[in-house]
């Protein structure tokens, strides 16, 4: 499968490397086609590098791995025409660092960054996922023991199934479909708790699991 990965940071590097390692055709996109990080990644992995627009045009599925503050501008550079009819996995979080650390959410409660993206690109199938774990856990969930969960939010069932299939390839065994794109609010609002846990635990190597009265791993009707 041809997959575009927008963003050259920690998340983009992790996602692109894992997808390439699984045998997918990958193009890492950045604001400039000659971005050094993207070129280095391409040289090391056998993947490709290009602009946001080139990566979106190349891809069947696009991963938005840009930071939340710049997600919309990056996707605008990718181009609505290049994203039309495609599945867009949105991994970004709406974190505002203008007041220092810890950041606050720039949008929450009655809206989400994923919904904002979906409104801006109505002909693209946005699926929110993987925004509740660290980059290395995103692509290798079995780094952690036990049954822990990742989530999907989106309006298009086929798009969610396409992303679910890639998550299974990554090694995720517990994938919970939360429903429509509005449920991305809950995923994004987990970030303040995640940041507090990171600070308190002194490590980013953790995830959340769901316990129900039907069992201890959230299996019943959810995966």
Secondary structure layout plus pairing:
Elements: E1 2-6, H1 10-21, E2 25-30, H2 36-45, E3 48-51, H3 52-58, E4 61-64, H4 71-78, H5 80-83, E5 87-90, E6 95-96, E7 104-105, H6 113-120, E8 125-128, H7 135-139, E9 150-154, H8 157-170, E10 175-179, H9 184-189, H10 191-201
Parallel strand pairs: 1-2, 1-4, 2-3, 4-5, 5-8, 9-10
Antiparallel strand pairs: 6-7, 8-9
Give a written overview of the molecule.
With 223 residues, the protein is α/β, with parallel strands linked by helices. It has helices spanning 10-21, 36-45, 52-58, 71-78, 80-83, 113-120, 135-139, 157-170, 184-189, 191-201, and strands spanning 2-6, 25-30, 48-51, 61-64, 87-90, 95-96, 104-105, 125-128, 150-154, 175-179. The strands form two sheets. The chain has an eight-stranded mixed beta sheet, with helices on both faces. It has a two-stranded antiparallel sheet with strand order 6-7. α3 (52-58) crosses α4 (71-78). The longest helix is centred in the last third of the chain and has 14 residues, at 157-170. The chain starts with a strand and ends in a 22-residue tail after the last helix. The model is unreliable at 218-223 (pLDDT under 50).
């Amino acid at each position: 499968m041809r997959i575009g990965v927008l963003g050259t940071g920690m998340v983009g590097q992790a996602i692109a490397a894992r997808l390439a390692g699984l045998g997918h055709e990958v193009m890492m996109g950045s604001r400039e086609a000659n971005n050094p990080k993207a070129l280095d990644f391409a040289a090391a992995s056998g993947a490709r590098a290009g602009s946001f627009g080139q990566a979106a045009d190349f891809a069947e599925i696009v991963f938005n791995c840009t930071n939340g503050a710049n997600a919309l501008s990056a996707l605008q550079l990718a181009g609505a025409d290049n994203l039309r009819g495609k599945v867009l996995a949105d991994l970004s979080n709406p974190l505002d660092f203008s007041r220092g650390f810890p950041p606050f959410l720039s949008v929450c409660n009655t809206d989400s960054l994923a919904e904002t993206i979906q409104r801006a690109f109505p002909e693209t199938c946005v699926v929110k996922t993987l925004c509740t774990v660290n980059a290395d856990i995103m692509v290798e969930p079995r780094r952690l023991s036990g049954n822990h969960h990742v989530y999907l939010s989106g309006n298009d069932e086929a798009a969610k199934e396409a992303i679910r299939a890639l998550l299974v390839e990554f090694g995720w065994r517990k994938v919970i479909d939360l429903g429509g794109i509005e449920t991305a609010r809950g995923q994004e609002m987990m970030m303040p708790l995640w940041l507090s846990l990171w600070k308190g635990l002194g490590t980013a190597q953790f995830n959340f699991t769901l316990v129900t009265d039907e069992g201890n791993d959230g299996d019943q009707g959810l995966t």
